[in-house]
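ok here's Class I SAM-dependent methyltransferase:
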Amino acid sequence: MGSSDRMLLIELTERLKELSEAVAGLRETQEGIERRLEAIEADAKADRQTAKLAARTAYAQIEDLMALYRLTGPGGPLPRMRDWAAGPELTRFLAEEVTARGGARVLECGSGTTTVVLALVARSIGSGQVTALEHDPHYAERTRAELESRGLQGWGRVVHAPLTDVDLGGEVWRWYDPELLPHNEIDVLLVDGPPGPTGPQARYPALPVLAERLAKDAVVVLDDADRPDERAIAARWTDAHPDFAAEHLGHERGTLVLRRNAGAP
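and the structure:
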């Protein structure tokens, strides 16, 4: 083989090597593009699912609000139901529970939106009363003002109940002063306070303290039931009170509902 042939062969070999590397690079680029397209498609699918879920949630909340306006009767706009306030789904559940009972003696641990709405329901059906315990004087006054502005003083009231030490079986808790609790039977107990910063499992004392005051067909409702503290409280309550059947509602922040088992004393 002459020198010119060897040079040509070397040149062809180099070009084949370059071509092979180029093909490999194109393959890697194609695979990268395909992976990127797959990721974009997955993101788009997730966005569509998120948008559908958001739309369903918004539609459900509108339905809940419309139901609440029917249940509360004419009385102006409902109070706000966002941020720390109870959402429309929990508020509707409570309003329907009170309506189904033909009125109820409601005790709330914590005051706010539900106090006003349930007082509106009581006035609408002409029966029942709501009492809310509130440890914060500022919030107590705000809720009182809401009730007064709607002429609901006879249907709902707020008791300023500062937190004090409460002994339960040797455990000391910061809870509402028991001396300020109403003495009537309780048909519906809503536990939405004290707030978490008060201490671990801050809402636990509600059922141990109030169990003897609950009516035989009482219902106990725990808000924010998806939080770790509230899950622990739910477990303790159900263990200590087997006469109650527990149900978890898939509300925005979770709701635990306890009802006495049929035939329980």
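+1. The chain has two domains: 1-72, 73-260.
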